[in-house]
Amino acid sequence: MLLPSEIFRTLADPTRLRILTLLRAMELSVGELAQVLGQSQPRVSRHVKILIDGGLVERRKEGSWVFLSLGAEERVGPLFDLLDRWAGIDPDEGWARADAARLAAVQADRAAAAERYFAAHAKDWDEIRSLHIAESEVEAAIARALAERPIGRLVDIGTGTGRMIALFGPAASQALGVDRSPEMLRLARVKLAEAGLPAAELRQGDMYALPLAESSADTVILHQVLHFAQQPETAVAEAARLLAPGGRLLVVDFAAHEREELRTRDAHARLGFSDEAMLRYLQNAGLDARVIEHLEGGELTVTIWAGERPEAKLKVVA
Question: Could you list the residue ranges that cross the membrane (predicted)?
């Protein structure tokens, strides 16, 4: 990490200051950053490397894309406090206004790509959704289940388009979505920006090997994910690993059914789950398990199960 004097030398180039300001607004890929700055991607990459070396920017690879975000708050927070004070004394926002306009164009490009993707897949999603109770009722049931206590640090596994983060992120102390698909994560960024949550963190990761530490979450959600899993019990155990003492895992998925066409048409690896099987998965992961609710009203029943990590017991010293 750089010393304070070296940080100021790092920011001596106006382009690097612009990069930090843009990343303060939202995560951007290297290509998007080059588009906003009006510079070549190799040149922007050189500036980015200097900022990464100084701990002011972080880099994350998702498939063939590289996304950039600000470094740790304790490092960049004081810097922005200082920049904000200077801006108030002697405002000079010409470049900032131009960058903001180009950033809006990037956001519009993302939204247009999202709309094209949704339009191409809307028929499949609508066919599946028509088989079960309305999604609004499922989401209301999830909200009831989460209302028992504060959400705390929220992790949504298989976040897809970020719907769970959009719904429950505002009540969380931190919100993070994980998905294996870079395409879905790009869609999630659009949706979360539209929901006023551009700072919510999104990461690419596998549900069987999550890029997160033990005890790093208070609430974990697996919403309509496990029926795609070849090894659902392993995925539940990995989700449970994230829970701090007293934390809870909410699993929302189909009850056992016999719609075999979903296996071939929509890549469902499992045709739902019985209560017995899901409770066993949760208990084997070291959680206290229970059925929250069965949501009937269509050909498929949606069930909500919960697993809670027991509170740590204090050792009694004789």
Answer: none
